Write the structure tokens for this entry.
Amino acid sequence: MARCLIIIALALTAGCRREAPPSDATDTNPEKTPAALDPRMKEFLVKWLEAHGHKDVVVDAGGVGVGDNATRLQASVYGSKHHENRGFVTEVEFTVRLLPSQRKITEFVAGIGKTEEEAIKDALLNFTLTTLHVVYKGFINADDPHMTIDSVVIDGVSRDVIAGDLYMRSEKKPDLHAMRAQIQDALKNLPLTAGPHWIKVVYGQINSKPTTVAVTLDNADHPDLTEAVKNLNWPRRDGFYMVKQFILVK
């Protein structure tokens, strides 16, 4: 069982250890050749957008998008490791380029599976359930019914907030419905400039004790938010559970 827990933990925390570029990073050499879009990821992103009713999907040097919308999606396998008798842990790097500002949302998402292909599919599911729908509603289709936009006062200013699902890996799943409001409440004193910001929350617990807790703001570690999330009233349970949530503030 302990080995199983390690693999499950890796599939949510591996991406926390990667250092993403700053959210305001821009390409200083616009003529350089961009990395090739992984064909498997291209197919997934194209089909996902088509399944959401888009007949105007475009694929260009910036990635996958729709019509004249400036947002572009990219994804590629960052790394993959086979653990003997325990299958694969595969990391997929996702980049959301926000044109014309050139800001980037970068996320490393890990998946597990008996084969590398299964691990990639698991990572894609993780990204879809936590991040992709939030990005889609926030930057591509504001009418998407899968997500809601809440008005939250942050640092004295009313902001639109789109909070993704609480994606969980666990032995026994606790009820985390009350945690959504607690996480939003932890944001209320956060000083944010105008414009979009994104927050990734990862919380892990084994036998009622917090293990991995990590919160990033605009791709960068945020110690104060991490400490605030760690001290929320998370359900105490025997065994293991780990939660991830992606939040967009506009």
The longest helix spans residues 116-140.
